[in-house]
Write a structure and sequence with these properties.
Elements (H helix, E strand, L loop, with lengths): L1 E7 L9 E9 L2 E10 L4 H20 L6 H25 L7 E2 L1 E6 L3 E7 L3 E5 L3 E3 L6 H7 L5 H4 L21 E6 L5 E5 L1 H4 L4 H8 L6 H11 L6 E7 L2
Antiparallel strand pairs: 1-11, 2-3, 3-4, 3-5, 5-6, 6-9, 7-8, 7-10, 10-11
Length: about 240
């Protein structure tokens, strides 16, 4: 398993409210999680780091070699649910953290497939001969696209583009979406926040991933900064070889 990850506050923000981590629980598997925090002052940073820490700890505790796909999904669900409750409880207990929350996109890469869990508008992509979006944004503009009221191109510059409809820590219960994708040996997985997807086109992301850079996540983050760096930027790239 190979992985690369990078996060940066970008050119316009004073603090980085993104958080991510990657680890390989055994020689045949790799786990990654990316969160994009929201909330005033440092609240978003607190929410995203709490979720990453909670989910990482619980996945490590519950992992076993040869784990089934169903058990992986259950482990992700229980870990993310626990993280949601932790953030929600903290936001209710302390005034300075009221309203904080975070997106989440997580992935378990196994021998020939990957299992994804997400809530919010942080994304997962599969790159083979082209870039394919695996997750579906939980956002206001995505709902407009689904209803046929705007096109995907119009959504890119919509004034309410950053309004998300699902996040961790906002309510006691949160719905998590799951996807499973089967892979070829040369395929790559990208997890990212909207600081990357909003500032680097999918065509350019595909070009950069095809270049076989030693540290592709850092290459992607640098490209987003070259394009303005208007938000915090996080990228994780996973592959089997």
């Amino acid at each position: 398993m190979k992985y690369s990850f990078a996060t940066d506050r970008g050119k316009k923000r004073s603090i980085n409210q993104d958080c991510c981590t990657v680890f390989c629980p055994d020689e045949h598997s790799c786990f990654a999680i990316v969160c994009d925090g929201m909330g005033g002052a440092a609240a978003g940073e607190i929410a995203s780091s709490m979720v990453v820490e909670t989910v990482e700890e619980r996945v490590k505790e519950g992992w076993r070699t040869g784990i089934s796909d169903e058990s992986v999904r259950n482990l992700l669900l229980t870990s993310i649910t626990a993280a949601n409750i932790n953030v929600f409880d903290k936001s209710q207990a302390e005034i300075r953290y009221q309203g904080m929350g975070t997106t989440v996109v997580a992935c378990v890469l196994m021998k020939d497939h990957a299992i994804f869990a997400h809530a919010g508008d942080s994304r997962a992509y599969l790159f083979s001969d082209r870039l394919k979006l695996i997750t579906k944004d939980h956002s206001f503009v995505q709902e407009l696209v689904d209803l046929g009221r705007i096109t995907r191109e119009q959504a890119k510059n919509h004034p309410r583009k950053n309004y998300i409809t699902r996040a961790l820590g906002v309510e006691e219960l949160v719905e998590i979406d799951f996807n499973t994708v089967y892979l070829s040996q040369s395929d790559k997985i990208l997890l990212c926040t909207d600081g990357l997807s909003n500032f680097v086109s999918e065509e350019r992301i595909a070009e950069l991933l095809s270049e076989q850079a030693e540290d592709p996540a850092s290459v992607l983050v640098a490209e987003a900064n070259r394009n303005g760096g208007g938000d915090n930027i996080t990228a994780v790239v996973l592959s089997q070889y």
